[in-house]
Amino acid sequence: MRMSVLLVFLCYAITAGAFHNRVFLGSQSIAISSARSPISVLHAMSDSIIDEDSSVSKFSGAGPVQVDMNIYNLPFETVLEEWTANMVPATPMQEEGIYLGAKNSREHLVDVVQVEFPRLQDMGLGIQLMELAGGREDSLGITIVEGLVEGGSAENSDILPGDCITKVAVRKSSSTSAPVDITAGMDLTETVEESAVTTECLGYDATVSAIVSLPPVSSEGETFVLTLKRLRRKPKINLTLQYPPEMNEPDVKLELFAGENLRRSMLVKGVKLNDALSRRFDSGGIGDCGAEGTCATCAVKIVQGGNLCNPRAQQEAQILVKRANWRMSCKTIVGYGMKEGSMTVRVSPRQWADGS
Ligand SMILES: *[C@@H]1O[C@H](CO)[C@@H](O)[C@H](O)[C@H]1NC(C)=O
């Protein structure tokens, strides 16, 4: 389903009108209202430096990333099939708009990557683009990176084929010396000026027009700062659950995604969690605390893969102080730090001969 090779914008003299072999992929993959005018999608230049959402943290409860996320990259052929554009209503995190998404959002995630590299005087950006969807009146579409041009500004950057460029900024910094305090001498002030265009969910022509609208090189030392969206698979945890030997239950194998809560995932999958021998840690009675982390009736013993979980917080550590490998499953996040691997966990650890 390769559409066509689209053009490289090597210099800013190229105009969008020069591209004739435009691709029409139909609009079925873009769930948007066609009433939008092109003006509202061709985002205006912005002089401000906008903080980007910090990457994966917003996709899961997995905590700060502890691995190189590039291990979860998808093959280019998969990415071609996976990009989609969704109309997203306003949330506290972002405005209403059309955003890139993964078709298979259960298995895949859209990560945000920022790269910065020097702006070469005569070479332009040097990114080869390819349109996956477009040809619409309203300029909406999906345009991805197909490759990097030899000798171009982006040549040695970490941009990968299949990435979508969502924002291109040019940064200039200039240092000026200003007297601040006689005794402290001269103070060096650095001012950073940024011009940026956003290009998320634009077709090829609109993407190129936006980029060529950036101001021409005016001084040495300018940099490009690109925000990209990159599709990745979600890290997985293979979990083996063992029941006490007396229960004669076969092991249960579950596949969880990084960031999932252990107790909730077990309950959702119908795993029997109730430990008949356990008394509530807090009251000594029966029943559970409803995942408050006070009763410890959902405790499990991690036989293997404890390093894939979040660390115990103070309350859990105090309650389970004599049980080094036990966790309250209600307070356990698997795939913490976006790690993946396999875990073996014993349910109802009090009923095992070597219970502790
Ligand atoms: C989980 O198990 C499947 C099937 O056995 C295997 O292909 C996969 O590599 C395992 N994943 C991890 C993260 O260990």
Automatic annotation (TrEMBL):
Q: Which residues form the signal peptide?
A: 1-18
What sections of the sequence does the record tag as coiled-coil? none
SUPFAM superfamilies found in the cross-reference section: 2Fe-2S ferredoxin-like, PDZ domain-like
Give a yes or no for keyword Transport in this entry: no
Which keywords does UniProt give here?
A: Signal
Q: Which GO terms describe its molecular function?
A: iron-sulfur cluster binding
Query: What's the domain of life for this entry?
Result: Eukaryota
This protein's name: 2Fe-2S ferredoxin-type domain-containing protein
Protein species of origin = Phaeodactylum tricornutum (strain CCAP 1055/1)
